Structures are given as C-alpha cells and as structure tokens.
Amino acid sequence: MLVNTELGFRVRERFTAVKDFFTALFFISIGYLLTLPGMRYIGAVTGLVLFASVIRPLFSTQVLRLQGYDLRTSFMASVQSSQISEIVVVGALLLAPLTESPVFETVAIGFATTTLIAHLVEDREQYIFDKIFSQYDLDSEKSYVPNDIENHSDSGW
User: Which position among 5, 41, 63, 137 has the lowest Cβ density within 10 Å, counted as fewest Cβ atoms?
Assistant: First the structure.
C-alpha cells in the first residue's frame, strides 16, 4: 500500500544502492568459489543458458496462453522468470561433493549468465515482444497499454 507513495519511492531510492552492493558482493563470492571448467563443459553451460533464457520463457508463454492470458501478458510474465533460480545454485552446492563433474561451476556460470541476460532484457521487453510477435493479431482491447499512463494500479487499492 506504500508502494506508490512518496515514502515508498524514497525508501526504494535509498535501498537500491544497498541492493546493488549486495548483488555485486554475491557475484564476487560466487566467483571466488569457481574454477572454470574445461572446454568440454561449455556445451552444458550453453545448453543451460539457452534453456533458461529462451526455451523456458517461450514454453511458459504458451502455457499462460492456454490458461487464458493474452499474448503480451503471457510473454512479459515469462520473461520475468527466465533465470536460473537461487535454489538451483544451492542445490548444486549441496550436490557438488557427491559428483565428480563440475556441477556447481556449470550451474554458477549459467546462473550468472542468465541473471545478466535478464537484466539486459528487462528494459527491452516491449521491443523484443514486438520483434517476436509482430505477425500475430493481438486482442487490442486486452493488450493495449497507453504510453503516457501515470499512477496506474490494477490491484484495486
């Protein structure tokens, strides 16, 4: 309820720097734990990144469409979840001593890469949506969002 108030904006503004600091600290600590796997594991990392960044969002878009959401909403929600989650990294850490292959390194590199891709895509979601789905007829009544919209809330608060 405080999200769109002046206090909410000030709190978010002050904590953004703290969040960025701890994000950088997290990636540095992950980097210290890594020993780069050989070239034979680059294929596994590439496959993991392609699955998490491309295949899973497209699959999720189709599943959400089948649930009744319009194409734009389905795509935007799917792109927001196109990362390897922290749970997978923790699981890889726990399984690393049990396996001989560099599972943790592969997952950690994939995690860092998909997080970077997600941040790069975040600002360009609408452009990517327009490029991928430009030939589809959209339900203009459901999909139209004016560019000059301000103070919009669809939660009913």
Answer: 137
